[in-house]
Amino acid sequence: SNSINDDNDPRNLATKYKFVNPDGTISNTTTIIQDPDSNTNLFNWFPTSLLAVYNLLTGDSGSLSPFTYRENPIMTILLVTFTFFTVIYLMNLFIGLLNLAIDDYNKEEEYLLQKAQIIMEIELFYMLPWQRNKKEWFPDWIYYDIPVTEIRKLINAIDNEQTVFTYPPIISKRLRELVVLTTNDNKKQTKEELTRELKEKMNKIEQKMEEKMDKIEQKMESIMKSLSKIK
Fold this sequence. Notes:
It is found in: Membrane. Residues 33-109 form the Ion transport domain. Keywords: Coiled coil, Membrane, Transmembrane, Transmembrane helix. By secondary structure, the protein is mainly alpha-helical. It contains 8 helices and 2 strands. The protein starts with 9 loop residues before the first helix and ends with a helix.
Protein backbone atom coordinates (compact mmCIF):
# COMPACT_ATOMS: atom_id res chain seq x y z
CA SER A 1 0.00 0.00 0.00
CA ASN A 2 1.19 3.51 -0.83
CA SER A 3 -1.18 5.27 1.57
CA ILE A 4 0.53 7.21 4.33
CA ASN A 5 -2.29 6.52 6.80
CA ASP A 6 -2.39 2.76 6.17
CA ASP A 7 -1.45 1.12 9.48
CA ASN A 8 -0.77 -2.21 7.78
CA ASP A 9 1.77 -0.76 5.35
CA PRO A 10 5.15 -2.36 6.17
CA ARG A 11 6.83 1.06 5.83
CA ASN A 12 4.57 2.47 8.53
CA LEU A 13 5.36 -0.53 10.76
CA ALA A 14 9.11 -0.42 10.20
CA THR A 15 11.45 0.93 12.86
CA LYS A 16 12.01 4.69 12.63
CA TYR A 17 15.09 6.60 13.79
CA LYS A 18 15.13 10.35 14.49
CA PHE A 19 18.06 12.74 14.88
CA VAL A 20 18.90 14.39 18.17
CA ASN A 21 19.90 18.06 18.03
CA PRO A 22 23.02 19.31 19.87
CA ASP A 23 20.79 20.85 22.51
CA GLY A 24 19.24 17.44 23.26
CA THR A 25 15.93 17.97 21.47
CA ILE A 26 14.59 15.48 18.93
CA SER A 27 14.43 16.73 15.37
CA ASN A 28 11.06 16.22 13.68
CA THR A 29 12.27 17.19 10.25
CA THR A 30 14.58 14.27 9.49
CA THR A 31 13.66 10.62 10.05
CA ILE A 32 15.50 7.48 9.01
CA ILE A 33 13.24 4.47 8.30
CA GLN A 34 14.62 0.95 8.38
CA ASP A 35 14.00 -0.76 5.07
CA PRO A 36 11.08 -3.20 5.67
CA ASP A 37 11.19 -6.78 4.43
CA SER A 38 8.62 -9.54 3.96
CA ASN A 39 8.73 -10.39 7.68
CA THR A 40 7.82 -6.89 8.83
CA ASN A 41 4.09 -7.53 8.43
CA LEU A 42 3.29 -11.20 7.88
CA PHE A 43 -0.43 -10.42 7.72
CA ASN A 44 0.03 -8.32 4.57
CA TRP A 45 0.05 -11.48 2.40
CA PHE A 46 -2.29 -14.46 2.81
CA PRO A 47 0.31 -17.31 2.75
CA THR A 48 2.51 -15.53 5.30
CA SER A 49 -0.57 -14.81 7.45
CA LEU A 50 -1.16 -18.57 7.68
CA LEU A 51 2.45 -18.95 8.78
CA ALA A 52 1.91 -16.24 11.41
CA VAL A 53 -1.13 -18.09 12.78
CA TYR A 54 0.91 -21.29 12.93
CA ASN A 55 3.62 -19.43 14.85
CA LEU A 56 0.96 -18.21 17.28
CA LEU A 57 -0.10 -21.81 17.88
CA THR A 58 3.49 -22.71 18.76
CA GLY A 59 3.72 -19.75 21.15
CA ASP A 60 5.71 -17.41 18.91
CA SER A 61 4.02 -13.98 18.91
CA GLY A 62 6.81 -12.25 17.00
CA SER A 63 4.48 -11.63 14.06
CA LEU A 64 2.54 -9.17 16.27
CA SER A 65 5.61 -7.27 17.48
CA PRO A 66 5.25 -4.44 14.90
CA PHE A 67 1.80 -3.64 16.31
CA THR A 68 1.17 -1.95 19.65
CA TYR A 69 -1.58 -3.44 21.81
CA ARG A 70 -2.67 -0.08 23.17
CA GLU A 71 -3.26 1.45 19.75
CA ASN A 72 -4.89 -1.72 18.35
CA PRO A 73 -7.52 -2.86 20.89
CA ILE A 74 -9.39 -5.01 18.34
CA MET A 75 -6.23 -6.98 17.64
CA THR A 76 -5.72 -7.45 21.38
CA ILE A 77 -9.26 -8.80 21.82
CA LEU A 78 -8.86 -11.15 18.85
CA LEU A 79 -5.52 -12.38 20.18
CA VAL A 80 -6.97 -13.15 23.62
CA THR A 81 -9.96 -14.92 22.05
CA PHE A 82 -7.72 -16.92 19.72
CA THR A 83 -5.35 -18.04 22.46
CA PHE A 84 -8.25 -18.99 24.75
CA PHE A 85 -10.11 -21.18 22.27
CA THR A 86 -7.11 -22.72 20.52
CA VAL A 87 -4.42 -23.03 23.16
CA ILE A 88 -6.42 -23.35 26.38
CA TYR A 89 -9.80 -24.83 25.44
CA LEU A 90 -8.95 -27.08 22.48
CA MET A 91 -5.67 -28.33 23.94
CA ASN A 92 -7.35 -29.30 27.20
CA LEU A 93 -10.14 -30.94 25.22
CA PHE A 94 -7.61 -32.99 23.23
CA ILE A 95 -5.81 -33.96 26.44
CA GLY A 96 -9.11 -35.14 27.96
CA LEU A 97 -9.94 -37.21 24.87
CA LEU A 98 -6.45 -38.69 24.92
CA ASN A 99 -6.87 -39.69 28.57
CA LEU A 100 -10.17 -41.38 27.74
CA ALA A 101 -8.55 -43.28 24.88
CA ILE A 102 -5.68 -44.37 27.14
CA ASP A 103 -8.16 -45.57 29.77
CA ASP A 104 -9.94 -47.66 27.13
CA TYR A 105 -6.75 -49.41 26.05
CA ASN A 106 -4.92 -49.48 29.37
CA LYS A 107 -6.46 -52.76 30.49
CA GLU A 108 -5.06 -55.90 32.00
CA GLU A 109 -6.56 -57.98 29.17
CA GLU A 110 -4.55 -56.05 26.59
CA TYR A 111 -1.38 -56.53 28.63
CA LEU A 112 -1.98 -60.27 28.98
CA LEU A 113 -2.77 -60.56 25.27
CA GLN A 114 0.46 -58.78 24.33
CA LYS A 115 2.38 -60.97 26.75
CA ALA A 116 0.86 -64.11 25.23
CA GLN A 117 1.81 -62.96 21.73
CA ILE A 118 5.42 -62.37 22.80
CA ILE A 119 5.60 -65.81 24.45
CA MET A 120 4.14 -67.39 21.30
CA GLU A 121 6.81 -65.73 19.13
CA ILE A 122 9.54 -66.93 21.48
CA GLU A 123 8.20 -70.48 21.36
CA LEU A 124 7.93 -70.47 17.57
CA PHE A 125 11.13 -68.73 16.51
CA TYR A 126 13.62 -68.94 19.39
CA MET A 127 13.27 -72.55 20.57
CA LEU A 128 14.71 -75.75 19.19
CA PRO A 129 12.38 -78.57 18.06
CA TRP A 130 13.31 -80.83 20.98
CA GLN A 131 12.45 -78.03 23.39
CA ARG A 132 9.02 -77.54 21.83
CA ASN A 133 8.36 -81.30 22.06
CA LYS A 134 8.89 -81.46 25.82
CA LYS A 135 5.58 -82.35 27.45
CA GLU A 136 6.68 -80.78 30.73
CA TRP A 137 6.86 -77.41 29.01
CA PHE A 138 4.06 -77.82 26.47
CA PRO A 139 1.37 -80.22 27.72
CA ASP A 140 -1.51 -81.20 25.48
CA TRP A 141 -4.12 -79.92 27.93
CA ILE A 142 -3.97 -77.14 30.49
CA TYR A 143 -6.63 -76.93 33.18
CA TYR A 144 -7.20 -73.82 35.24
CA ASP A 145 -9.99 -72.18 37.20
CA ILE A 146 -11.69 -69.02 36.04
CA PRO A 147 -14.83 -67.29 37.37
CA VAL A 148 -17.97 -67.69 35.29
CA THR A 149 -18.41 -63.91 35.09
CA GLU A 150 -14.98 -63.54 33.48
CA ILE A 151 -15.85 -66.24 30.92
CA ARG A 152 -19.05 -64.39 30.06
CA LYS A 153 -17.15 -61.13 29.59
CA LEU A 154 -14.57 -62.84 27.38
CA ILE A 155 -17.18 -64.57 25.22
CA ASN A 156 -19.13 -61.32 24.86
CA ALA A 157 -15.94 -59.50 23.85
CA ILE A 158 -15.11 -62.19 21.26
CA ASP A 159 -18.64 -62.18 19.84
CA ASN A 160 -18.67 -58.36 19.59
CA GLU A 161 -15.17 -58.31 17.99
CA GLN A 162 -13.68 -56.29 20.84
CA THR A 163 -10.57 -58.47 21.11
CA VAL A 164 -7.64 -59.11 18.80
CA PHE A 165 -6.56 -62.71 18.31
CA THR A 166 -4.19 -64.07 15.70
CA TYR A 167 -5.85 -67.43 16.22
CA PRO A 168 -9.31 -66.92 17.75
CA PRO A 169 -10.26 -69.44 20.45
CA ILE A 170 -12.86 -72.12 19.78
CA ILE A 171 -15.88 -71.75 22.06
CA SER A 172 -18.02 -74.85 22.12
CA LYS A 173 -21.78 -74.83 22.31
CA ARG A 174 -21.60 -76.78 25.54
CA LEU A 175 -19.51 -74.03 27.15
CA ARG A 176 -22.04 -71.40 26.11
CA GLU A 177 -24.82 -73.48 27.66
CA LEU A 178 -22.85 -73.89 30.88
CA VAL A 179 -22.18 -70.19 31.36
CA VAL A 180 -25.79 -69.39 30.37
CA LEU A 181 -24.77 -66.64 28.01
CA THR A 182 -27.74 -64.42 27.20
CA THR A 183 -27.66 -62.77 23.80
CA ASN A 184 -30.22 -60.99 21.71
CA ASP A 185 -30.82 -64.13 19.66
CA ASN A 186 -31.49 -66.11 22.81
CA LYS A 187 -33.88 -63.40 23.99
CA LYS A 188 -35.72 -63.57 20.69
CA GLN A 189 -35.92 -67.35 20.97
CA THR A 190 -37.27 -67.15 24.51
CA LYS A 191 -39.92 -64.66 23.41
CA GLU A 192 -40.97 -66.93 20.57
CA GLU A 193 -41.07 -69.91 22.90
CA LEU A 194 -43.21 -67.98 25.39
CA THR A 195 -45.67 -66.95 22.71
CA ARG A 196 -45.89 -70.54 21.52
CA GLU A 197 -46.48 -71.80 25.03
CA LEU A 198 -49.18 -69.19 25.60
CA LYS A 199 -50.89 -70.12 22.35
CA GLU A 200 -50.77 -73.81 23.22
CA LYS A 201 -52.20 -73.14 26.67
CA MET A 202 -54.97 -70.97 25.23
CA ASN A 203 -55.83 -73.69 22.72
CA LYS A 204 -55.97 -76.27 25.50
CA ILE A 205 -58.22 -74.03 27.58
CA GLU A 206 -60.52 -73.48 24.61
CA GLN A 207 -60.71 -77.22 23.97
CA LYS A 208 -61.55 -77.87 27.61
CA MET A 209 -64.21 -75.17 27.56
CA GLU A 210 -65.74 -76.66 24.43
CA GLU A 211 -65.75 -80.12 26.00
CA LYS A 212 -67.44 -78.76 29.12
CA MET A 213 -70.01 -76.90 27.05
CA ASP A 214 -70.77 -80.09 25.14
CA LYS A 215 -71.23 -81.99 28.38
CA ILE A 216 -73.51 -79.27 29.74
CA GLU A 217 -75.59 -79.34 26.57
CA GLN A 218 -75.87 -83.11 26.78
CA LYS A 219 -77.00 -82.90 30.39
CA MET A 220 -79.53 -80.22 29.52
CA GLU A 221 -80.92 -82.39 26.75
CA SER A 222 -81.18 -85.37 29.08
CA ILE A 223 -82.96 -83.23 31.69
CA MET A 224 -85.38 -81.91 29.11
CA LYS A 225 -86.14 -85.41 27.92
CA SER A 226 -86.75 -86.61 31.46
CA LEU A 227 -89.08 -83.66 32.07
CA SER A 228 -91.02 -84.40 28.92
CA LYS A 229 -91.51 -88.00 30.00
CA ILE A 230 -92.81 -86.90 33.40
CA LYS A 231 -95.43 -84.72 31.74
